[in-house]
């Protein structure tokens, strides 16, 4: 059997123009389940834009009086991206995906021909290890905590997701995606002069995703990966006899390959 190459697993590139608005970018991410998007300009790849970067720019007070439709992708494009060629093997793709969410695939003339993500890789290659080896520490936050404090923790500690609890009961999960979509909706329905006051009263329970899927430690890695692929989710909390012990993410799975 011939070795698997990047061409065998890559998917269609999901792009957004540098001149597009971040509202358009977020809509495309949500519609196609993508994160990040490849940013293009005049036919060339210039970087990527992520849900995290959109959440950060929409949550910034200095941009509070600007509509998401008036903020361009160019203002938050990330030019630190990686690329590979279609004829290269998984031995090239795996280490790249252990450091980046997405690998841009270019032909030998440097034209964009596709992309590879953790999802593409996990469809053909899954970790041969225990659940404990792919389980990461998970952070929790109370449902009645204010969103401004949530954002501060995300920024200060570089945390992208929290399990939401009501006292000791798990009731949801909140991620940078929830922050980005909430901030966009907030900007569109609340007048500028009321935004500062209203946003300070916004609670985690107002923006979290609920209910949250969980898996038991005894379920095994294959079952967890299959669930994540089937449900198109990027992470799933792990419990042991009902008590949360951590979280499995696409990134933690790829790191063990």
Write a structural description:
The chain has 257 residues and is an alpha/beta fold. It contains 12 helices and 13 strands. The strands form 4 sheets. A 4-stranded mixed sheet has the order 7-13-12-11. The longest helix is centred in the C-terminal third of the chain and has 14 residues, at 176-189. The protein is flat, with a radius of gyration of 19 Å. Strand 9 and strand 10 (169-175) form a beta hairpin. It folds into 2 domains: 6-122, Roll (CBS-domain), CATH 3.10.580.10; 131-255, Roll (CBS-domain). Helix 3 (51-58) crosses helix 8 (176-189).
Which terms summarize this structure?
257 residues, alpha/beta, CBS-domain, 2 domains, four-stranded mixed beta sheet, three-stranded mixed beta sheet, 13 strands
The CATH class of the largest domain is identified as Alpha Beta
- Low confidence ranges: none
CATH fold group of the largest domain: CBS-domain
How many beta-strand elements?
Answer: 13
Secondary-structure class = alpha/beta
CATH architecture of the largest domain: Roll
Write out the strand line-up for the largest beta sheet, numbering strands in chain order.
7-13-12-11
- Give the terminus-to-terminus CA distance: 20 Å
Percentage of residues assigned to helices: 25-40%
Main beta sheet strand tally, sense and closure: 4 strands, mixed
Element pattern in H and E: HEHEEHEHEEHHEEHEEHHHEHEEH
The CATH homologous superfamily of the largest domain: CBS-domain
Shape: flat
Q: What's the structural domain tally?
A: 2
Summarize model confidence as the mean pLDDT: 91
> Count the helices. How many?
12
Percent in strands: 15-25%
Structural Rg: 19 Å
């Amino acid at each position: 059997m011939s070795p698997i190459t990047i061409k065998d697993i890559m998917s269609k590139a999901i792009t957004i123009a540098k001149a597009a608005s971040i509202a358009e970018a977020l809509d495309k991410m949500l519609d196609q389940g993508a994160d990040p998007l490849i940013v293009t300009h005049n036919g060339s790849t210039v970087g990527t834009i992520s849900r995290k970067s959109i959440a950060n720019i929409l949550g910034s007070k200095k941009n509070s009086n600007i509509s998401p439709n008036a903020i361009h992708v160019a203002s938050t494009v990330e030019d630190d991206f990686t690329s590979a060629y279609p004829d290269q093997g998984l031995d090239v793709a795996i280490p790249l995906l252990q450091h980046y969410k997405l690998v841009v695939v270019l032909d030998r003339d440097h034209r964009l021909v596709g992309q590879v993500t953790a999802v593409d890789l996990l469809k053909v290659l899954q970790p041969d290890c225990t659940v404990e080896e792919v389980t990461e520490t998970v952070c929790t936050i109370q449902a009645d905590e204010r969103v401004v404090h949530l954002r501060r923790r995300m920024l200060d500690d570089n945390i992208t997701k929290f399990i939401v609890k009501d006292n000791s009961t798990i009731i949801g999960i909140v991620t940078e995606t929830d922050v980005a979509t909430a901030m966009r909706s907030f900007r569109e329905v609340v007048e500028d002069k009321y935004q500062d006051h209203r946003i300070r009263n916004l609670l985690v329970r107002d923006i979290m995703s609920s209910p949250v899927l969980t898996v038991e430690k005894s379920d095994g890695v294959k079952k967890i990966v299959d669930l994540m692929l089937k449900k198109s989710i990027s992470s799933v909390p792990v419990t042991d006899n009902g008590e949360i012990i951590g979280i499995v993410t696409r990134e933690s799975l790829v790191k063990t390959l």
